[in-house]
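Data card: per-record layout.
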Amino acid sequence: MEQPKHSLPVLPHSGKVDELKSAPLAISPTPSYIAHVNRTKPPGKLSSQQQALEEKVVEQLKTIFDPEIPLNIYELGLIYDIDISEDYKVHIRMTLTAPACPVAGSLPPQVEAQIESIPQVKSAAVELVWDPPWSRDMLSEAARLQLGL
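The structure for this 149-residue chain is written out next.
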């Protein structure tokens, strides 16, 4: 599998994947982030241009990989919200797998830069949040399959 140019290198033997495999899967009353994104505006409220831009934003997010887990940040469920304003300013709420994540200082600016590389985007801002805390329940189905969970 070819790794995109803009991703961080995966750290060998960090133990994070083994930790995910051994952790119990919580039974959540609400579905995990299968859709990954809680929109600020309901789908019907986004213009067709905003919807098209949201798809491009998601494509860009899928090119950014976590350095400890060989998956992109979107499939990992690290993206909690994508808001695209009418003037094409993008606001992303995201989390990390742990508060002490080694890329806490570098990943959000990388995400902003990736999103701002999309020609239609006027600006991008990433808000790092810790609530709800990330858990493996937030992995997409594709991510679970890739990790063998």
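Known properties of this structure: Residues 1-10, 26-40 have pLDDT under 50 and may be disordered. DSSP finds four helices and three strands in the chain.

See the next section for split statistics.
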